Amino acid sequence: MINKKTKDGKYTITTATPADAAQMAEVQVVCFPTLAPHELLTEEHYANHIKVFPEGQLVVKDHDRVIASSSTLRIHFPKLDHSFMEITDNLWITKAHIPNGEWLYQFDIGVLPAYRGLKLSTELYNAQQELVRSLGMKGQILVGMTIGYGSYKDQYSIQEYCEKLKNNELTDPTITPQRKAGFQWIKPIFNYLEDPTAGNCSILMVWPLEGVSVEEYIGSNVA
After folding, report:
1. What are the residue boundaries of the structural domains of the chain, listed by start?
2. Whole-prediction pTM value?
3. Once rounded to an integer, what is the mean pLDDT over residues 26-49?
4. What interhelical angle do 21-31 and 43-52 show, nearest 10?
5. Rounded CA separation 223/79 (Å)
6. Architecture label for domain 3-218
7. CA separation (Å) from 212 to 102, 140, 208, 209, 222?
8. Cβ-Cβ contacts under 8 Å for 137 (sequence gap 6 or more)
9. 117 — phi, psi (to 5°)?
């Protein structure tokens, strides 16, 4: 279990408890206002995640207030094309979580607007990577929403937007920081979720432990 201060000493990163579930759901609603309602995580979902895989659910707190959270499950490396609802067992993770899964899959992360720009997401990624090491896993997987697409939707198709992101011709509020945090681009997953601001798309990325070959898992059929 994790319980430590952020690098600046102002906030606390800790393993989530059932008492945090309601505030985690509040963070979700604020952070994803255009996500389809049936894909929003609720207090009940978060409480179940904590029950199924307690060490994989993290929060950042400002005193007693949850200001950021991240949710994960353990899986074996997934098929490259999958959806948010498929990978999370329709948000509950009960049937999707594999106790001896080799990869930590992050399916949710959110930081309240007033606390953005403080690298709290990076702190959460680092804490998750500590968990990967402590549990003897291969690495971490995430699927980052292309949330910046809304500013470019009149200029580019979502496919064109993703290609420009891949080539570093554009920056995205979610994808660019994740790449800077060490996640390697694998491919876009179109229709990963229902969010028009993101073009319904997210980018599959991976952070492998040193010595782990990503190519062994993904082959050459990536974009």
Report:
1. 3-218
2. 0.94
3. 97
4. 120
5. 14
6. 3-Layer(aba) Sandwich (3.40)
7. 11, 11, 6, 6, 18
8. 74, 101, 102, 103, 104, 131, 209
9. 85, 5
Tokens of 206: 């991976």
DSSP 77: P
Q: For residue 185, what is the enclosing H or E element?
A: strand 184-190
Distance CA 187, CA 162 (A): 9
At 37 the three-state DSSP class reads helix
Q: Are 88 and 73 in contact (CB under 8 A)?
A: yes
The DSSP secondary-structure symbol of 80 reads S
- From CA 207, how far away is CA 78, in angstroms rounded? 14
Q: Which residue has the tokens 């390697």?
A: 184
Task: Please give the DSSP secondary-structure letter assigned to residue 57.
Answer: E
Rg, C-alpha atoms of the chain? 16
Q: Which residues are 66's β-sheet partners?
A: 61
Q: Do residues 161 and 152 touch, judged by C-beta distance below 8 A?
A: yes
Give the C-alpha distances (Å, rounded to integers) separating 214 from 60, 71, 123, 170.
Answer: 30, 23, 23, 25
Q: Which residues does residue 71 pair with via DSSP β-bridges, in sequence order?
A: 57, 108
Q: What are phi and psi of 140, to 5 degrees?
A: -125, 140
Helices and strands: H and E segment counts in the chain: 7, 8
Convert the pLDDT of each residue in 189-210 to its tens digit: 999 999 999 999 999 999 999 9
Q: What is the mean pLDDT of the chain?
A: 95
